[in-house]
Write a structure and sequence with these properties.
- A hairpin with a 5-residue loop joins strand 18 and strand 19.
- The relative contact order is 0.07.
- The chain is 48% helix and 12% strand.
- It is an alpha/beta fold and 679 residues long.
- The chain is globular, with a radius of gyration of 28 Å.
- Helix 5 (140-148) crosses helix 10, helix 6 packs antiparallel against helix 10 and helix 25 (593-613) crosses helix 28.
- It has 29 helices and 19 strands.
- The strands form four sheets. The protein has an eight-stranded mixed beta sheet, sandwiched between helices.
- Bound molecules: 1,4-dihydronicotinamide adenine dinucleotide.
- The site of 1,4-dihydronicotinamide adenine dinucleotide has 26 residues, from helix 13, helix 16 and strand 15.
- Residues 300-306, 323-326, 329, 380-383, 387, 391, 408-410, 431-434, 524 line the site of 1,4-dihydronicotinamide adenine dinucleotide.
Length: 679
């Protein structure tokens, strides 16, 4: 325990070093070590003030989330920081917190228990607990308003965004920014304040006036943090500080924290947090797998996806050549890219100079000049196997021998595409999602031949592009789309049976989906779905929705034709269209929102079980992360498989049976054995 926290004395100042790499998380042993060090230094007559500082790259980046997980699953006790924080705040000698890197969550709570805070100019502070469904639980909601004021504290706790050192100084969270070496600067600062009486944060009540801004903040949360309980809980907890004495406030904070930490939302968000890290580890691709360096890239097809992929590459500083067959298509593609960047400039997210630099990275062309220098070529032409094979045969002849050939296909076999080349081991699927410059997911599809360094390179490239790469096996629709089709079908069956498109979409957005299935279908294009149906007809004897054929025949392709499942006005606002219902309605019964959610979401889970059993997805968590990062599944439900576990697989299986569905064998078995996907 000693090595986690050490202390020494310099010129009358006791210096406590926190040393728990990589981010000095407040894991068990750290708070106890700090408390013991404070008590020892306080008792030394030669010590006049204390400095607490983090070694390595940061002050303290937060609590150890694993300890919350252990506590809520009965495998450990909940970490409690209060005794350490009181020992600091009650110390009779001034305690100066010296912050570099980040002071986040428990890190900021620790810092606020000190009597003074100094920081480097690039330091950041914040209370990000809300991002994992929690509120600050170690006095953060009570001490922060005392330093920063009620409304700013509520905003920081409800949105979880960190702020810069200069803003923190202005707000009163920091006392000084040190341009010199932090350690010596903090010691000098401590010497300055050594003789002053200590000022406890908990006694500083001058900024606690109740604020009307909290109600505005609540409204904002309801809109932008739909269905989430933690942001509102955080505002409530901060508000309590303005009406209640500190000790009582701490008790109330603890009650609210307790509610949050045991909530399904927090468990789902924590699963999502760890899940993103888990998918980056693929058992047969160890960390030391060699990777190809990507200096130059090329993209084939300047359409919706090709343009977005080129932007993603340029954004990461990788020069990219983009080729199309027609000048008009190329011009259109480049115009869309320029328009996208201009929008970012107008909204202040990008400077004109940065836009110019990025545009210069993208070279549009009709020929294959420079393709022989590319380290990766990503194909994004129309979704046709014959065309893809032709393109791959051509690029195989031009590309250097160690160039990776990737396809952005959303459904087609990577094995078959690879067979059109002399290097199937260099062929991989990199399935980006639309808009590819924005969406975080990339499904990395390995065929039977794809070699490990190519998979590892695709994973590394996804990371460079600031995306989440999830490795999956080849198979129709891979994981994401394969699992989505039964979900979409169920939505269409519901309309055939008596629901309306808008009811289905609303029930599912109320459940938390970013968009309803019909809105998604209209955005992607009914023609796209129709083509997939032609290429992969439903097996004989299975129920097939009639909507896609009917809408396709009526020329209702979705937003692009101004009508699909909805009609669209000039501003692309979807308007319910009774004509659609009349076209496909088969029965007339009242359908509840609950039935809509159960049928659609459980069919996702059921197909997920099939994908898992077939080994197309490696683990349940891979399906979860695919749905969270690519399909707008609500993060606070942890992904479809985690949600299934939360509901209970027995119930999921029963309801699928009640609705006349066929259970995936894996789901049936787990339900019978009382097990879960995530075990
Ligand atoms: P798109 O129709 O917008 O663009 C395709 C582009 O490829 C067109 O500009 C076309 O002129 C060009 N092209 C056709 N043949 C070519 C050739 N031989 N050489 C060079 N360029 C050629 O299509 P989109 O939507 O970008 O789709 C492209 C691929 O991405 C498809 O495989 C699709 O399944 C996949 N995909 C599409 C998504 C979407 O939401 N649109 C999402 C994920 C994948």
């Amino acid at each position: 325990m000693e090595h986690l926290v050490t202390f020494s004395v310099h010129d009358g100042i006791g210096v406590i070093d926190i040393n728990n790499p990589p981010v000095n998380a407040l894991s068990s042993g750290v708070p106890e070590g700090i408390k013991a060090a404070v008590e020892t230094l306080e008792s030394l007559p030669d010590v006049h003030a204390l400095v607490i500082i983090g070694t390595g790259r940061t002050f303290v980046a937060g609590a150890d989330i694993n300890e919350f997980v252990a506590a809520t699953s009965g495998k450990g006790s909940m970490p409690v920081l209060h005794p350490t924080l009181f020992a600091i705040e009650d110390c009779t000698k001034p305690v100066v917190m010296a912050i570099h890197g980040t002071a986040l969550g428990g890190g900021l709570e620790l810092a606020m228990a000190g009597h003074y805070r100094v920081a480097t100019p690039d330091a950041q502070v914040g209370q990000p607990e809300v991002k994992i469904g929690l509120i600050p639980g170690a006095g953060g909601t009570q001490r922060l308003p005392r330093l920063a004021g009620v409304s700013k504290a509520a905003e920081m706790c409800a949105f979880g965004e960190s702020i810069s050192a200069s803003e923190a100084l202005e707000l009163g969270i920091l006392d000084r920014i040190l341009e010199i070496d932090l350690r010596s600067g903090a010691i000098a600062f401590a010497q300055e304040v050594a003789d002053k009486p200590v000022r406890k944060t908990r006694d500083r009540n001058e900024k606690l006036a109740p604020s009307d801004a909290l109600n505005t903040l609540r409204e904002q949360c309801k809109k932008t943090r739909r269905n989430l309980i933690a942001p509102l809980a955080a505002i409530d907890a901060v508000e309590i500080a303005s009406t209640t004495p500190f000790d009582e406030g701490l008790k109330r904070e603890a009650e609210i924290f307790e509610r949050c930490v045991h909530s399904d939302q927090s468990k789902g968000l924590i699963h999502a947090f760890f899940g993103e890290r888990a998918v980056a580890k693929v058992p047969d691709i160890p960390k030391d797998t060699p990777v190809y360096t990507i200096h130059h890239a090329a993209v084939i097809g300047a359409g919706t996806m090709g343009g977005g992929i080129a932007m993603a590459l340029a954004n990461a500083g990788i020069p990219v050549r983009i080729k199309d067959t027609e000048q008009a298509a190329l011009d259109k593609g480049m115009a869309v890219i320029a328009a996208n960047y201009s929008r970012s400039v107008k909204s202040g997210r990008l400077t004109w100079q940065a836009m110019e630099q990025r545009m210069e990275m993208i070279t549009p062309q009709l020929g294959v000049d420079g393709f022989d220098r590319a380290d990766i070529i990503i194909e994004a032409v129309f979704e046709s196997m014959a065309l893809k094979k032709q393109v791959f045969t051509e690029i195989d002849q031009i590309a250097k021998h160690d160039c990776i050939l990737a396809s952005n296909t959303s459904t087609l076999s990577i094995d078959e595409i690879g067979s059109a080349t002399s290097r199937p081991h260099m062929v991989v699927g990199m399935h980006f999602f639309s808009p590819a410059n924005v969406m975080r997911l990339v499904e990395i599809v390995r065929s039977d031949s794809t070699c490990r360094p190519v998979v590892a390179t695709a994973m590394a490239l996804a990371k460079t592009l600031k995306k989440v790469g999830v490795v999956v096996r080849n198979g129709f629709g891979f994981v994401g789309n394969r699992v989505m089709f039964p979900y979409m079908n169920e939505a269409m069956f519901l309309v055939e049976e008596g629901a309306t498109t808008e009811q289905v979409d609303r029930a599912l957005t109320d459940f938390g989906m970013a968009m309803g299935p019909f809105a998604v279908c209209d955005l992607s294009g009914i023609d796209v779905f129709w083509r997939i149906q032609q290429e992969f007809p439903a097996p004989a004897g299975t129920r097939r929705p009639i909507g896609i054929d009917k809408l396709y025949a009526a020329g209702r392709y979705g937003q692009k034709t101004g009508a699909g499942w909805y009609r669209y006005d000039e501003s692309r606002k979807p308007l319910p269209d009774p004509e659609v219902v009349a076209m496909i309605r088969q029965k007339q019964r009242t359908i509840s929102d609950e039935e809509i959610v159960e049928r659609c979401i459980y069919s996702l889970i059921n197909e997920g079980a099939r994908v898992l059993e077939e080994g197309v997805a490696l683990r349940a968590v891979d399906i979860d992360i695919i749905y969270l990062t690519g399909y707008g599944f609500p993060a606070y439900r942890g992904g479809p498989m985690f949600y299934g576990d939360t509901v209970g697989l027995e119930k999921v299986a029963k309801r699928i049976r009640d609705f006349g569905g066929t259970l995936a064998p894996l789901l049936e078995r787990l339900a019978k054995e009382g097990k879960m996907f995530h075990e």
